[in-house]
């Protein structure tokens, strides 16, 4: 391997090993150094999966895939304005998390890992479990006690062993990390691992191709842990040029980036997540928070807090266009409507990522329909 891990905090340089997911010296977030560039001729146009960008990924195309990647970019409308929706809820497990899980697990499998541990109660657990099944790896999911059986059923179907842990999200993560220290085992974290975001960068590489090899003017992205946002920035680094403004959409009930943005020192303080239908973004202290703020600044973007009534209305609006998404996935569209109401005109093309399928949240959907 020609690349290394670089710590974003202490700047330390590390040789990548299967078990490394954060800086062993200071606990900081790692990134790949130097950033992987994509030479335009190196795109494998014959490959209809995200592995068409293997030349800019840190691991070779695995022997088998689930056909993940190259999701449609379709035209749609919001409040009379033409927008484009990136349909990442059509990935094999029904969420964008496939991109990161695909690349990270291909890497871990190639490194000889036999078992992975994951802390998630939803889409990440399902994605890791699916690609673990594909590569013949065992997977242990750690979820908070009280997680509804409905949310974890997909991961179980793929063969994941599920462990319920009492306590806060940090306690659950610590249990997954501890179990990940066993022999031939690795902690596969969607919130920490640098290879997960290498996989998520493929969504914006695809958009660039789908727009005729040009960047959109702005992208609206649901942000909880922020892997889609960080991935977008890696895509800009990979191709260069004048990229889009990246707008992070968070629910008002849990918007640590918006809170930090309004502070003079822009320091990220953890928030206590409130009640919201956007469950996938209820992360009060994103491990890569400082990096997310820096990414927004560098792209000319900013974070938006979406009020709950607007989120619900926008989710329904998408359904009525034939787009069956879960409420978390409607955050980007709702944030777009907010900035348009304030009079901001980004100019075309604007891209809104739809991150997760409504099939994931049958309970919430029924609740919303019954309340009408
Ligand atoms: Zn460090």
Please write out the topology.
Blueprint lengths: L3 E4 L5 E2 L15 E4 L39 E6 L2 E7 L9 H14 L4 E5 L3 H13 L2 E7 L4 H9 L3 E5 L3 H11 L5 E3 L6 H7 L1 H9 L7 E5 L4 H13 L5 E7 L4 H6 L27 H11 L2 E5 L1 H12 L11 H11 L8 E5 L7 H10 L1
Parallel strand pairs: 5-13, 6-7, 6-9, 7-8, 10-11, 10-13, 11-12
Antiparallel strand pairs: 1-2, 1-3, 4-5
Helix pairs in contact: 1-2, 1-5, 2-3, 5-7, 6-7
Describe the model.
The protein is an alpha/beta fold and 372 residues long. The protein folds into 3 domains: 1-34, no CATH class; 73-96 and 196-371, Rossmann fold; 101-189, Rossmann fold (3-Layer(aba) Sandwich), CATH 3.40.50.1100. The chain is 34% helix and 17% strand. It contains 12 helices and 13 strands. It has helices at 97-110, 123-135, 149-157, 169-179, 194-200, 202-210, 227-239, 256-261, 289-299, 308-319, 331-341, 362-371, and strands at 4-7, 13-14, 30-33, 73-78, 81-87, 115-119, 138-144, 161-165, 185-187, 218-222, 245-251, 302-306, 350-354. The strands form 3 sheets. It has a 6-stranded mixed beta sheet with strand order 4-5-13-10-11-12, sandwiched between helices. Strands 8-7-6-9 form a 4-stranded parallel beta sheet, sandwiched between helices. Helix 1 runs parallel beside helix 2 (123-135), helix 2 packs parallel to helix 3 (149-157) and helix 6 crosses helix 7. Zinc ion is lined by residues 7, 9-10, 12, 23, 25-26, 28.
